[in-house]
Amino acid sequence: MEELLKEKWNTILDAIRSEFNITQVSFNQWLRPLIVFTIDGDNVLLLYDDNEGADLGIKYISKRFKKALSAFISEAMDKEYEVSIISPDEAKQYTGKRRELVQQKNLASSTMKNISLNPKYTFENFVVGKNNRFAQTAAFAIAEQPGSSYNPLYIYGGPGLGKTHLVQAIGNYINETRNDLNILYVTSESYTNELIDNLRTTQNATAMAKFREKYRSVDVFMIDDIQFIADKHSTQEEFFHTFNELFQSGKQIIITSDKPPKDLQNLNDRFISRFEMGLMADIGFPDYETRKAIITRKLEECDYELAPEIQEYIAANFKSNVRKIEGALNKLIAYSKLQRKPVTIEIAIEELQNLITPDMPREITPQLVLEVVSEHFNVSVDQLTSKNRYQSVVRPRHIAMYLCKTMTSCSLTAIGKLLGGKDHATISNGAKKIEEEMLIDQELKRQVEAIKKKINPN
Ligand code: ADP
Ligand code: MG
């Protein structure tokens, strides 16, 4: 059997190469060094015959080609085979016992290795602009030296601005360069669900101990969208322990959120100070140039061409969410594939209309104003309508008064009611204050204009 496989080996490699469209360089790098070492029962042991690159090579091949290798070998030999890839060192020491060890090791690493990372999120395809340069630099520094640069890294910003992309790029980078580290990526929702499942399905302590063990044995821990655990008390408690243990043993922690820690309502103060001890990096809206660069990059990725004026049209109209830019591109690509004709600027305008301006102009209500102001300043609606006198709340509150007064048709009394039971004079004074200050304060004026645009983009 072994001889037969050795005879067929080159043919098998060639078949894999053409099936996967592997380039010559890539083939030489990854598949060429593989030779048939031995067959043991249902297991084919392939030797990665290159001492230098063995660690990285074996990891890479296992991830990308192990299934294919096993399928193509099975087909050529007309019998089902599993595949293990071993290094020259392992081959030297090969005995029955050693084989067991190799298998166990493969098993252990495949269960521990993180499967939820999306390989398409890499640093290479993350477009860097003014809005995310700091976050990207911090992320890259951490990817190169986890645990020793900044801990924790806290990345925050609005939806669709690349937070998940960036943290997963850290994970993918570490996965490729360091196979000694265990990486764990979770969303705070899946963390919560897993915790609840463990609490619910078992009364005994074993499952909880396992849960804790799993989280505490990682070297790089990434938790995405932490805002979802902020108002769940028991999850927060458990997370606090996870966080502390990892932190104290110098493990890298990376957190993302839609807001800075101090704006997360219900987040325990203990967290706020711990998060703030690390590095905070925000991701803002991409500027026009960055949006254009993102569009160019995405089109390259899917090998599709769009006239420059269409690209410019998209860049000019989708300003605050990269996911929506992708949505717009996908819509146009789908259109041209279905209709079998190229997209013109007229078609683009027509097709994207609904994505840019909703069919029905939305009614401008004080509630809407409050929500937009709240989002803009990262101050909750509750704070806006409270009696809180902090400057960070008072200013947004006055702006909300001004915008309610000038943009809606509500009476001052009704606005006052909505803003936490204030009388009409308070609203009138607040609005006047902003009106007057805008005459001398250009920055404030710009800010108010920006919020107005968000409330009414037309
Ligand atoms: P968030 O987690 O902040 O909501 P995501 O990371 O999911 O946002 O990003 C939404 C989409 O936009 C993803 O497909 C991502 O690849 C893309 N994206 C966001 N920012 C960038 C960027 N700077 N360069 C390239 N793609 C980006
Ligand atoms: Mg995300």
* Helix count, DSSP H or I runs of 4 or more residues: 21
Biggest sheet overview: 5 strands, parallel
Based on DSSP secondary structure assignment, what is the total number of beta strands? Answer: 8
Helix fraction? 55-70%
Bound ligands, named by name, code or SMILES? adenosine-5'-diphosphate, magnesium ion
Overall average residue pLDDT: 87
Q: In percent, how much strand structure appears in the residues?
A: 5-15%
Q: Describe it for me?
A:
The protein is of the alpha/beta class. 60% of the residues lie in helices and 10% in strands. The chain contains 21 helices and eight strands. The chain has helices spanning 2-19, 24-31, 54-77, 88-92, 96-112, 133-144, 163-177, 188-201, 205-216, 233-248, 269-277, 288-301, 308-317, 322-339, 345-356, 366-377, 381-384, 391-407, 412-418, 424-440, 442-455, and strands at 34-40, 43-48, 82-86, 153-157, 183-187, 220-224, 252-257, 279-283. The strands form two sheets. Strands 5-6-7-4-8 form a five-stranded parallel β-sheet, sandwiched between helices. The longest helix has 24 residues, at 54-77. The chain is globular, with a radius of gyration of 28 Å. The termini are far apart. Adenosine-5'-diphosphate (ADP) binds at residues 125-127, 132, 157, 159-165, 294, 322-323, 326.
Summarize the structure.
With 458 residues, the chain is of the alpha/beta class.
Question: Descriptors for this entry?
Answer:
10% strand, globular, 21 helices, 458 residues, 3-stranded mixed β-sheet, alpha/beta, binds magnesium ion, binds adenosine-5'-diphosphate
